Amino acid sequence: xxxxxxxxxxxxLFFSAIGGLFYGGVLSLSDVVFAQSRNELLxxxxxxxxxxxxxxxxxxxxxxxAVVDLxxxxxxxxxxxxxxxxxxxxxxxxxxxxxxNSFEAYPTTMRGGVKVAVADFDGxxxxxxxxxxxxxxxxxxxxxxxxxKEVRSFYAFDKQQFGEYAIAVANIQGDAKPEIIVSTGRGFxxxxxxxDAKGKRISMKVDFSLxxxxxxxxxxxxxxxxxxxxxxxxxxxxxxxxxxxxxGDGTEVASFSVFVSSESGIVSIGTEDVVGDEKEEMLVLxxxxxxxxxxxxxxxxxxxxAYQLAGITSDMAxxxxxxxxxxxxxxxxxxxxSAVPKPVTGKQGQLMEVSITDQRLRYYDDGFQIASVMxxxxxxxxxxPIGEFKIENKYRRPYSRLAKLYMPYWMAxxxxxWGFHELPEWPNGAKEGADHLGKRVSGGCIRLPVGAAExxxxxxxxxxxxxxxxx
Length: 471
Description:
single chain, 2 domains, 1 helix, about 0% helix
């Protein structure tokens, strides 16, 4: 059986720095901000990591955070994309957490959260805001001005694809212009797409053969201090903790592990010039069962500094950005909940769990959640069987004579007729029931989104345990 993690795994969180969210600026280490509740940030001193203060975000839970100096006064505003389960809003907040403005980035039916990035694409010194659904959405990139007016929209991948995504901006082509970098999240085969400000795709060929379906993490890093960024590419979950450094055309510069022998885990990546040499470093937070440690590494993966941290109580892995909210010399590190939960004890090996109530499939490797995917189960008159099963067989694109439809990425869990599969497909390639995800409408099988079905099919071995519950 393939494994992403060991049973005694730790969490690894690369600090998600402003370099991946706001194109431009040089920052250094100061306060660490930990999200301990859904609507609150805790700011820890970045030198001693002891003192803290709270910032309340009234009615706002972030899926992603960027910052920008709208008034050009040295005081930064927060740009926040809403967390899953909320209206798909983008919030503009003052540096004390109070609301300046907000706007809906997507129709209110899209409840998967919003990822944001910020850049000046047209050179007018006024930043634009770039968005993509954080989860449960199609890969639609939108660009807004700072007042929330939509400027441009395009799809990064097949518009039928449905799931998690991430977005970053950086100059990776060496033309002093920021590019838009879109990556697939958990539950997809790994993919990256790069675009200019007008939505024109830029060629980039990356070798994904050593990456898996636990979600891509992509962060720009300026290794040479020349203003042109390379990219760090890693997985949310990887047994060896490997990161890959690639140029803007996708060719690999280097790869190395950020783990020592006893470590593995869930990652969130980012970079920053911590030592002030105009070359960016990587920051890594390792959370074990009883402690949390922060590491700072250079671009070769060599440890520069390490700290013990205390007081992180969230049950989710954390994401991060660096910024100087109030124009002080030392910026702050803002930390907030990712969509990735801590591991669940007692879940050994590969396990697929389906909730009829939630209409979700969650799958795990040694207790670490690899992905959470919206599905469509059987309607009340043809219910999906409840109980414990296992994957019995796998076929890439079988044909159902009864339904007269193809069932891509078929995996049977109860012989003869019940299984997982992608949305059914007519002979001409058209999908059946694209708007049925999240609803009980199937004939008893479990329908999966475009993209997510292929990833699950590649991940799950025959014999993988399946648990289907009403809850």
